[in-house]
From TrEMBL:
<feature type="domain" description="Response regulatory">
    <location>
        <begin position="1"/>
        <end position="116"/>
    </location>
</feature>
<keyword id="KW-0238">DNA-binding</keyword>
<dbReference type="Pfam" id="PF00486">
    <property type="entry name" value="Trans_reg_C"/>
</dbReference>
<keyword id="KW-0805">Transcription regulation</keyword>
<feature type="DNA-binding region" description="OmpR/PhoB-type">
    <location>
        <begin position="123"/>
        <end position="222"/>
    </location>
</feature>
<dbReference type="InterPro" id="IPR016032">
    <property type="entry name" value="Sig_transdc_resp-reg_C-effctor"/>
</dbReference>
<dbReference type="InterPro" id="IPR036388">
    <property type="entry name" value="WH-like_DNA-bd_sf"/>
</dbReference>
<dbReference type="InterPro" id="IPR011006">
    <property type="entry name" value="CheY-like_superfamily"/>
</dbReference>
<dbReference type="InterPro" id="IPR001789">
    <property type="entry name" value="Sig_transdc_resp-reg_receiver"/>
</dbReference>
<dbReference type="Pfam" id="PF00072">
    <property type="entry name" value="Response_reg"/>
</dbReference>
<feature type="domain" description="OmpR/PhoB-type">
    <location>
        <begin position="123"/>
        <end position="222"/>
    </location>
</feature>
<dbReference type="InterPro" id="IPR001867">
    <property type="entry name" value="OmpR/PhoB-type_DNA-bd"/>
</dbReference>
<protein>
    <submittedName>
        <fullName>Response regulator transcription factor</fullName>
    </submittedName>
</protein>
<dbReference type="InterPro" id="IPR039420">
    <property type="entry name" value="WalR-like"/>
</dbReference>
<keyword id="KW-0804">Transcription</keyword>
Amino acid sequence: MIVIVDERELVTEGYSSLFDREGVATAGFAPGEFGEWVSSAADTDLRSVRAFLIGDCRDGAISPRQIRDRTGAPVIALSEQHSLEHTLRLFESGVDDVVRKPVHIREILARITAIRRRAHEEAAYTEVGSMRIFMDGRDPEINGEPLPLPRRERRILEYLASNRGRRVTKTQVFNAIYGIFDEEVEENVVESHISKLRKKLREKLGHDPIDSKRFLGYRLVF
């Protein structure tokens, strides 16, 4: 999930719509609401956040360092001012990157992946047995051959790969894929997506790489 902060509701809604086309869940906040939320949100909710995008906010309304106190997710400023002084002020405030608008959604996703890779020494992909799972929206490969997947199933596989070695609950998967504030979709939809994903992987691999335990959740295995 990506969190977008901007004083203009039309802007947060516009970005949310564009990210949704890429299969990426979002949550939009006004600056005042965001400060209260980020200081009080549960750790499990914050672990579902892939990045924070900070748009037009009053000076001092958003503190990247306040975000950093709660989570290591990248903080990216979206800037409409093309001046060196403004860009330097944004970096001095603690953001990880400054992106000048207009910008394509895929470029933002690529920047997020690059920042996370540098910060956590993450590879651009994860290998699980004969699977190569990319973290930038590309379809996974099995034995070098692409396996086309619907975007939700692909995002679930990416999330499982990013948490390799740990179990994730159905709620954690739902929050990462649909966002923590999506009340229009039932959480049980995760079971349907994972069931379809497991069937496709089993057909290609000859075994089921997703281990599930009731009440404990899911994890990728060799």
